[in-house]
Amino acid sequence: MTKFSRVLAVLLLALVATAAQAGERLVVVGGGNRDALAMKRFVEWAGGPKSRIVFVPWATSVPEESLAGFLKDVEPHGGRTVTALPLAPLTEEKRKAARTMLEQATGVFFCGGDQVKHMAAFAEAPELLALVRERFRAGVVMGGTSAGAAVLSDPMITGEGDFTVIDGEKVETKPGLGLLPGVIVDQHFVKRQRQNRLFGLVLKHGLPGMGVDEDTAAMVTDNRHVEVIGAGPVLFVEPKPGPALLVHVLRNGDKFDLQTRERVP
């Protein structure tokens, strides 16, 4: 190993160690415009100028355009080392390249589009799905917008179903990444009036739900602490006996504890 290679290896290990010490962190963007402060925080969490960010383009039909928009949002904040995972279908060579990228990443961001496509690509390469979950637990910051926010959840809302009624049986779900255990995530929430489908799923599963509006991000740390950044609200929907629902409306700057289910002063 050359001196340069040894130095590079030490730097990579330092980045990974720093991430591991920071705990689990998610940036859940509800779609629309990505708030500048939220993306600044994403880059900072990933290591700032030393960050190695991986962009996951599988959900979109316009991957180059989607990547260009993401770069425009992160480069002003120091996120200049950005690579995109190979497009599906994932050959053995592509899977190997994707694994290397994810192993070295300090941040991962899932694009919008169709969340089912994200999980379909992972179905081709289950070792990559396991690696994403492993890297998240190790402290690699992860985020996504629109479909990229929905895929963070498990169960994951697919977008299919009858949303004219509050009935979880009529809302199609599939397994997602499950990076926010015990919480069902929805996006474009107020803008597209998606309360029916989330309310129905909360009642069906007895799990809380988090609806993130457009131009807004829910910044989640340690699977517990939520801070809202952006123009719209985040609604935390809590199941109650009855059956009934308790809805917390959180706005820019508000903080919420997912364990106690209370606002944080």
Relevant terms:
four-stranded mixed β-sheet; 35% helix; alpha/beta; single chain; Rossmann fold; nine-stranded mixed β-sheet; 265 residues; 8 helices
List the helices and strands and how they pair.
Elements: H1 3-22, E1 25-29, H2 36-46, E2 53-56, H3 63-74, E3 82-84, H4 92-104, E4 107-110, H5 115-124, H6 126-137, E5 141-145, H7 147-150, E6 156-161, E7 171-174, E8 184-187, H8 195-205, E9 209-212, E10 216-221, E11 225-230, E12 234-240, E13 244-250, E14 255-257, E15 262-264
Helix pairs in contact: 4-6
Structural commentary:
The chain has a single domain (22-264), classed as Rossmann fold (3-Layer(aba) Sandwich). 35% of the residues lie in helices and 27% in strands. The protein has 8 helices and 15 strands. The strands form 3 sheets. The protein has a 9-stranded mixed β-sheet. Strand 10 (216-221) and strand 11 form a beta hairpin. Helix 4 packs parallel to helix 6.
Please summarize what this structure is.
Helices cover 35% and strands 27% of the residues. With 265 residues, the protein is α/β, with parallel strands linked by helices. The strands form 3 sheets. A 9-stranded mixed sheet has the order 3-2-4-5-1-10-11-14-15. Strands 8-9-12-13 form a 4-stranded mixed sheet. The chain has a two-stranded antiparallel sheet with strand order 6-7.
